[in-house]
Amino acid sequence: MEALLDQTTMTSSAGPGPVLKVENVAVAYKVRGGEILAVQNVSFEINRGESHGIVGESGCGKSTVAWAIVNFLGANGYVKHGSIKFLGQELVGKSGEELRRLRGDQIAMVYQDPMQALNPSMRLGDQMKEVLTVHRGMSDADATKRCIEMLERVHMPDAANVMKRYPHQISGGQQQRVVIAMALLNNPAMLIMDEPTTALDVTVEAAVLDLIGELRREFDTAIMYITHNLGVVARVCTQVGVMYAGEMVERGQVAQIFKAPQHPYTQGLMRCVPKLGADKASSLLYPIIGRVPPPDSRPLGCVFGPRCDYAQDRCGEEHPRLRMLPSGVQVRCHFAEEIDPAQWTPPPELELPPEPVGTGNGNGNGAGEEPILVVEGLKKYYTAASNSLKGMFGMGEKRYVKVVEDVSFTVKKGKTLGVVGESGCGKSTLIKTIIGLEESTGGEMRFLGFDITGDLSSRNKRLIQELQMVFQNPDSTMNPAYSVGQQIARPMIRFGTVPKRQVRDEVIRLLQAMRLGEAYYDRLPRQLSGGEKQRVGIARALASRPDLVLCDEPVSALDVSVQAAILNLLLDVQHEFETTMIFIAHDLSVVRFFSDDVAVMYLGQVMEIGPADAIYAPPYHPYTEALLSAVPIPDPAAKQKVIRLEGSVPSAMNPPSGCRFHTRCPRRHLLPDDGAICAQEIPPWQEGEDGHRIFCHIPLETLRTLDPVITQ
Amino acid sequence: MTVAQPTANVHHSEPSRLRKFWSGVSVVFTSKIATVGLIIVLFWFIIGLVSFFWTPYPPNSSLFAQNLYPNSVNWLGTDHLGRDIASRLMAGTQVILLKTRVPGDSGWIIPGGVALWGVFGALVVGAFLGLNAAYRGGWWDQGIMQVLDAMVAFPAIVLYLVIITALEQGDFVVIFAITVTGAPGVARLVRSLALDIKTRDYIRAAETRGEKASYIMFREILPNARGPILVDAMLRVGYAIFMIGTLGFLGIGLPPPDPDWGNMVNEARRFIFLNAWAPFPPSIAIASLVIGLNLFADGMREELTRYQK
Amino acid sequence: MLVRDCMTRHPILISPKTPAAEAQRIMAENRIRHLPVAGSGKRLLGLITRQRLAMKPDDLASLNVWEITRRLSNLIAEKIMLPAARVRTIEPEKTVERAASLMTDYRIGCLPVMEENVVVGIITETDLLRAFQVMLGIQGEGVRVTVNMPDKRGEFAKLMRVIVDRNWGVVGVGTFPNARRDGYYFAVVKISNVTLDEVRDAIGGIESQEITDIRTIV
Question: For position B252, which CATH number holds?
Fold first, then answer.
């Protein structure tokens, strides 16, 4: 057959070429009256065993690139020019059948929502086996064996049993594991992951990210990882490309980009995420001014030019090329060498506000801090529908879902209480009960001295006026049928806070306080961006001049640069109106940044409560510790303890006895008998300094000896 | 996704009212189907308007020989009483789309045809019931929906007969019949829309302002269900016209001697062996108007749902 | 070292219907000399090598220009490949030595790596050369010393003991028989973070062993 080595064709020691090579790709969508260039000038390559992150805000074309690779662009999208080479073979310009053959089972895709990839009417095992039996003609028994092996490989507990279940019978994190296992069954050369962990809780996300890293090394798969979260990139990726307005603006090794971002956009992105441990007293967030231009009105020169702090005349005229810097980082900027992020100064309007008198941080001037809201042993149960015949006639034993159980805290005037916890921990129900959308089942709640245990119908108008809420989803926070002005004016008219004739002026004054101009008065919600809608939502909540504003994840649906602007706005609002806030979020760095006090909730109970800085340093409650160690930190150099929780959150219908966290607690072994007491007795509240309280059997002295979770 | 809605950023300046109106209307013309539908509907509207002032011959007088086939004098022939079919066809549009006769001998008329008022009635009743069922939930929902289900289960024709025999013939009775038969459908639609809309955060916001249930239902929820309800209403106008035709065919529709299409078909049927041509013009008129409304509604649905995003 | 540790995973595969010209282009563009042909589920159907693409002059001599063109355009991978039954393959759990001996025994340049009929990788001469480099620690800096020692029990241990005593780090080891002197063999050891003289002093003193070559590699 082949004779000895042919010297001239000896390949370089880097091995065979990249798995995926994308060169100068542009993707366009045909729309009525022309076409829209969604993505242009995108080039990157991914080698075996590499994981290439694509980051950027929404609408920057990240997913479009992925869809171009797998040819999911839809009926009106197509690759306008450029080349996409997969395993050395061109994909652009090939027919559907040829593409299917080329890609075959070599590219797998994992989406944000695992249910997109799972058939809800088939058992998981059957779906997985199908991959092997259909393509490879494997026997059923062999396929079953392989599937179980693969499920075990992705750390699925009780794999054989999972095979027999339907998708809805397992949790979201487990569904995502099944999807990943299914994707790997074919041993694909490339895995495209489009925000695979965005919908998951932090602790679950951490475990999935660990898994992805492990699998990449073991299977030598090239991974294209699309995300908006810089922390996730830092944790799982080796290379990263930053996309902005449909272009790749910077690309290089993760370590390098995080250490010294070259493009002003990348620098801006890094500045607008709060560092874990940063607080509002000592640091500021710097949002990027303006917003991502829509694809049909991108600037002719540098796409980032209009929002760039360093923009010069040249940036408006000449489109920069992606060029290689000596450090090996590719950047699309005319002046990358001249820009030193360390020299960057924040715009003058973004200075740390002076510390207002009387609202200092805990020590010393604690006098005059009257509690505005006192919650004592609050309970909220829902009755669960009984399945038995007896239950149908109301004779059976009533079963309760104990969503909030024995929660106590106080909120002081002008302060912010942050509430963190994973989904299903009862934080939203807690807020709904306080605001009166739900009636409490037990316990006491006093707001400004008035009893508010009943729901809204039992409260008088003045009380209702003092409690307002900011909602999570910018797309549903505003009524699409009314203009911005009408919606902000409504609470003023309803509560009569402003005489009728002055309403318009007052609305405009509020709009200006939200950094929105008078021009917004007559706009309809569909003409606003997500951030703008959220600002209007805040303005509406403030319109009745409430004493307490409850914020239910107000920034979690927003892009990071917008998120920073909204957080700054909320801070300003708090300074100007001296509003007290309760702030719910699942992002621990945001809560840390924004809150004076923090409560950590798990399964309806507060596990730890205290001043923000005390929560984020030892002694930790074991659950807080696990949460902190799961947070993806946007700094690949930071060292983080690895603590992963086993299993999933138990049902609130049947919460574990004793300490509700004992079934998953990684620190139980610190107690005698492996923490036998945890399962039997409800833990005591252990008092630390400054009102810091921990709900745990483990003595504070022991908890204090644990190392901090994050060391720089 | 990345294909952003281009309209969002176009007008930053304040558009005039006329302009706003035009931009709303122009939505119709972006869909070919809707444009065709609109042309058909407008055609009948104009015919009806013209008939108030001019018809080739007086519609109710027997001026010609009976049962003539179309000829140069009577374009569509004459009926069994020797009346001009073309004139009657034109005048028949009035009662369906343009006027409602007040019972009694006053001779007063209300603008808006029987079909339109009937559908309007169905919308008002249906929306009220649907909103209450969806927003209040619980026993309200159960009760309202059970009653409506019972109404749907009752055969429609029998229902008309019962209503009409109870109340004598007349325009208002037909309107009432259309309302009663249409309301359950509207209520179901409104209920399903409201069930979705009531989960939105802006409803929570209204509740945390302590707004009354009626305010939330009619001011917060209803405006957002507008699009689908309008489309549904247009389809319902089509059904209502069919229904008027059916009632007329059964001889219990709008009172004679003023023509309406249903009655015309019914009368022509009896003399079909003498004049096979006579049933066609009113039948085609009914069919074309219904098709026109359907096309218009379909086209609008496509456009309205696209614009909702 | 096993085959799975040094094979190339996810090799470029072509389908049996790929035109020969395309196959040739893929090989040239990606600078590879072997192209496994796989069907659905990555099952191996055959192998295309440079030789397979070369046409015998005798075949062509009898054809005119038009016939050659037609013949070429109809040529697809399926027709020119070496069918799977005749392709030597190996499993990922076999040793590298086994792969190397298969390749030298049959004078072939590559072995598709198979797991139950499915191509999971390919191992070529290049991969083996790379494995060879890794084993001898070529990538790292250090002092490379070749020692000639008698083929007796305990000889190698003596050498190692010297290294262990000084707490030196070994980055690569290899042994091969001395072709010129029966009963002797060479041991090549690469040690990091030491000077040439230190190594010469330490190893040169071992009884019955001699240094035949010593050099610093950076």
Answer: 1.10.3720.10
Q: What is the DSSP letter of A646?
A: -
Question: Does residue A430 sit in the same domain as residue A320?
Answer: no
In this structure, the answer to whether residues C149 and C83 fall within a common structural domain is: no
Residue A61 bridge partners (DSSP): none
Answer whether residue C57 shows pLDDT above 70: no
Q: Looking at the domain assignment, is residue B273 inside a domain?
A: yes
Say which amino acid occupies A672. Answer: P
Using an 8 Å CB-CB cutoff, list residues of chain C that contact chain A: 8-15, 17, 26, 29-34, 40-43, 49-51, 82, 106-110, 116-118, 120, 125-126, 130
Count how many domains chain B has.
Answer: 1
Tokens 């026997």 sit at which residue?
Answer: A139
Same domain, yes or no: C152 and C92: no
**The CATH number of the domain where C20 resides is what?**
3.10.580.10
Interface contact flag, C41 A105, Cβ < 8 Å: yes
Q: Name residues whose C-beta falls within 8 Å of residue C20's C-beta, 6 or more positions apart in sequence.
A: C53, C72, C75, C76, C77, C79, C80
Query: Per-residue b/e over A644-670, b at no fewer than 16 CB within 10 Å?
Result: ebeebbeebeebbebbbbbbbbbbbeb
CA nearest A458 in B: which residue?
Answer: B210
User: Which residues make Cβ contacts (< 8 Å) with residue A309, sequence separation at least 6?
Assistant: A264, A344, A347
Is the domain of A327 the same as that of A408?
A: no
- Examine the domain organization and report whether A335 and A414 are in the same domain: no
A43-52, B26-35, B173-182: range with lowest mean pLDDT = B26-35
Count Cβ atoms below 10 Å from residue B28 Cβ, excluding itself.
16
Q: What does the DSSP assignment read for A424-437?
A: TSSHHHHHHHHHTS
Neighbours of chain C (3+ CB pairs under 8 A): A
A61 → closest Cβ in B2, B200, B211: B2
Per-residue three-class SS string for A75-96 = CCEEEEEEEEEECCEECCCCCH
Q: Is residue A577 part of a domain?
A: no
Distance CA C134, CA A286 (A): 49
The neighbouring-strand residues paired with A28 are: A37, A78
ipTM above threshold 0.85: no
Q: Among A469, A480, A495, whose Cβ lies nearest the Cβ of B205?
A: A469
- Alpha carbon A398 to its chain centroid, in Å, reads 37
- Give a yes or no: residue A697 inside a domain: yes
Quick check: do B and C touch, 3+ CB pairs under 8 A?
Answer: no
Give pLDDT tens digits for B249-271.
777 777 777 788 888 888 888 88
Domain end: C132, C161, C185, which one?
C132
pLDDT band at B13 (very low <50, low <70, confident <90, very high): very low
Q: Which domain holds residue A61?
A: 16-106+221-354
pLDDT of residue B162: 80
Contacts of A477 in chain B (CB under 8 A): 201-202, 205
Domain assignment of residue C59, given as a range: 3-132
Looking at A301, A325, A354, the residue that finishes a domain is A354
Q: Do A295 and B3 touch (CB under 8 A)?
A: yes
Are A451 and A315 contained in the same domain? no
* A2·C10 Cβ contact <8 A: no
Q: Mark whether C26 and C70 lie in a shared domain.
A: yes
Q: C2 near C94, Cβ under 8 Å?
A: yes
Closest chain A C-alpha to C32 CA, distance in angstroms = 7
Q: Which chains touch A (3 or more CB pairs under 8 A)?
A: B, C
Question: C107 and A2: CB-CB below 8 Å?
Answer: yes
